[in-house]
Amino acid sequence: MRMPSVKYQKGDKVMGRWPGSSLYYEVKVLGFDITSQLYTVIYKDGTELELKEQDIKNFAGFQTRSRSRSRSPGRRRSRSRSPARTTRRSSSRTAAAVAAAAGTDSSLSSSQDTRLKDALEVRLGPLQQTMPAENNSNNKHEKKEENNTANKVNEVEAESEKNLGRYNLRRRKDDGGAKPAAVVAEQQEKEAVKEAAPPASTLSTPLDFGGKIGAYFWLLFLPSWVLFLVLQVNLEDPSLFNFPPPLPPLEAFWDVQALGFVILWILFQALLYVLPVGKVCEKSCHLYTQLSEGMPLRSGERLKYRTNGFFAIVVSAVAVAVAVHQGVDLTYIHSHFLQLAVASLLVSVLLSVYLYVRSHNAAPEQQALGGNSGNVVYDFFKGRELNPRIKDFDLKFFCEMRPGLIGWCLINFALALAEMKLHGLDAPSYSMILVNVFQLLYVVDGLWNEEAILTTMDLMHDGFGFMLAFGDLVWVPFTYTLQAYYLVSHPNSLSPLAVATIVTLKLIGFYIFRKSNSEKNAFRRDPSDPKLSYLKTIPTATGKSLLVSGWWGVVRHPNYLGDLIMALAWSLPCGFSHLLPWYYMIYFIILLVHRDSRDMSDCRRKYGSAWDEYCRTVRYRIIPRVY
Questions:
Q1: Which of 407, 379, 537 shows the shortest CA–CA distance to 484?
Q2: Which residues contact 267 (CB under 8 A, 6 or more apart)?
Q3: N or C terminus of the chain: which is more exposed, having fewer CB within 10 Å?
Q4: Could you tell me whether strands 48-51 and 38-43 are parallel, antiparallel, or unpaired per DSSP bridges?
């Protein structure tokens, strides 16, 4: 059989068309797949893609053609705009910044301007160019991080000086007086970054959670599922064979006092959040960076967070203790569990509506790629704005770590008191104590290491919409407490051996979870730390390295493995009489498998062939020799 001819060889520098556009950029050929007849290429920004042969052009021929383009001086001048206008091409802004840094004149001839523009188009990576509009006239590309932009600008400056000589860009009369060239360059470059940030709706990543139809399903299913769990666990026999549970009268779902308590709790946590206690951390929320890289937002801004979650839970515990001492009956939480859940649902819906409405006023660089599909229901569910803030109050970070997470511990404590009251006990049962202590340790550990959440998928990638608002305010406090709620009416006695076994299992899971996360975070902060010299890595085209030793050489997600072991320890105290208290374990397996799938897709897109090598090196995803 005759092998097909390969036009471009590994290592060739060619011009590759960016998918979905008519623009070509300089790329390097990494290989050719005979089966798919596709070339694997890498762009200057590190993006690896597979292209067809017709989407690749010879570099020399393309450069010759691009430099032959020119426009008349008259037309060039007629298209000039005042500095106040922000619709100028980002390449023109970048060229102005380069020339201003050189401290030269702005009177370029038409042919020189065209040649400089062409040089920029050839030199800059695809995420730094203006993509052609499909549904509107706005930019559709994503601006690279500022440090990468600076490197590219240096390349452009060297290229332009080599081919075109040095030029002076005279300042316009309305620029407000002379400024140092470096300041001018910095200001213009920041304008270019902001201008380059696309409307996220035009750069929406592939839809997940079942896409647009899935969004309708989850909006209806998630609240219904929470109500079902609360009603089912209240039954004398909570067997799933008794499905569906009988519906109480409508007035049983609503209580104004319960709504007042929910709002009061959220306001109390908000007050603790804004107090000037705890350290302030900077976080990069650029969609393709990590905390340790210290990269700014696409707007060049660095968000700051006051991480005082541990302080908040300590103060909350003291406040609850004082309330109990003053005679406040916390068993109200158990007797009004359904009403509190419905009130929290109402708050999460109202918050989601507010977030969706305000997202339309957010700048393009502040929007999340995953929540801007253009479909109202999907974007409402997924969240359009990445980091919605009221001044310095970050709504997503607050909801992620405070009212629901600390509320989880408060509800567990109230359910332990309800068990004692219902059965006339002087102390909670061993099963209730284990569930309370295990889950309290989990929450306290998360709040003690609060800054680690700044690199999670929720904070880095997902917009803040109904999915996270409902998850933070309803799902966590009213489904993660299901085991404690079950034990109030369905006690399960444990032998000392069973207690010791469950405690040992919990400690093993917690050790794996904490050590693996600590190893990852230490490597992110300082990969060159001599203490981490034993770690083996695989380099990638993005400049980042993938860990393939330590805990991260055993499975791809050792932190997930520790999480699952802890979830098992939380469920065992409830026994095996019913499936319902094992809901968290079952749900968590589904959640982590889905997150692993999202992570695999994202990493394969970012790291290309390096990710394939990583998968061959670390074969198992979560459970060694199983999955």
A1: 407
A2: none
A3: N
A4: antiparallel
| Residue-wise pLDDT tens digits, 502-556 | 999 999 999 998 888 888 877 777 777 777 777 888 888 777 778 888 888 888 8
Query: Residue 152: pLDDT above 50?
Result: no
Pair type for strands 303-307 and 279-283: antiparallel
175 vs 167: CA distance, rounded Å: 19
Residue pair 315/406 in contact by the 8 Å Cβ criterion: no
Higher pLDDT pick, 288 / 122: 122
DSSP calls for 2-31: PPPP-SS-TT-EEEEEPTTSS-EEEEEEEE
What single letter denotes the amino acid at residue 300? G
| Alpha carbons 391 and 300: distance in angstroms, whole number | 17
How many residues comprise the chain? 627
- Tell me which residue has tokens 């059989």: 1
Are 327 and 320 in contact by the 8 Å Cβ rule? The answer is no
| Region of poorest pLDDT, from 75-79, 256-260, 400-404, 445-449 | 75-79
CB 198 within 8 A of CB 141: yes
- Taking the CA atoms of 439, 440, 443 and 448 in sequence, report the sign of the dihedral they define: negative
CB count, 10 Å around CB of 589?
16
Average pLDDT, the chain: 75
Interatomic CA distance for residues 48 and 38, integer angstroms: 12
Quote the DSSP letter at residue 533: T
Give the Cα separation of 132 and 20 in Å (integer). 9
Tokens encoding 155: 């390349």
**Residue 168 gets which letter from DSSP?**
-
Work out the burial of residue 358: count CB atoms within 10 Å of its CB; fewer than 13 is exposed, 13-18 middle, 19 or more buried.
middle
Whole-number pLDDT of residue 229:
92
- 172 CA to centre of own chain: 42
Distance (Å, whole) CA 466 – CA 346: 11
Distance CA 117, CA 481 (A): 60
Topology classification of domain 13-64: SH3 type barrels. (2.30.30)
The answer to whether 499 and 437 are in contact (CB under 8 A) is no
The two structure tokens encoding residue 230: 């609360």
**How far is Cα 106 from Cα 99, in angstroms, rounded to an integer?**
8
Residue 267's Cα: distance from chain center in Å?
Answer: 26
- The C-alpha atoms of residue 221 and residue 317 are separated, in whole angstroms, by 34
Q: Supply 240's token pair.
A: 């799933």
What is residue 546's three-state secondary structure? strand
pTM over cut 0.90: no
Q: Residue ranges per domain, the chain? A: 13-64, 85-198, 494-627
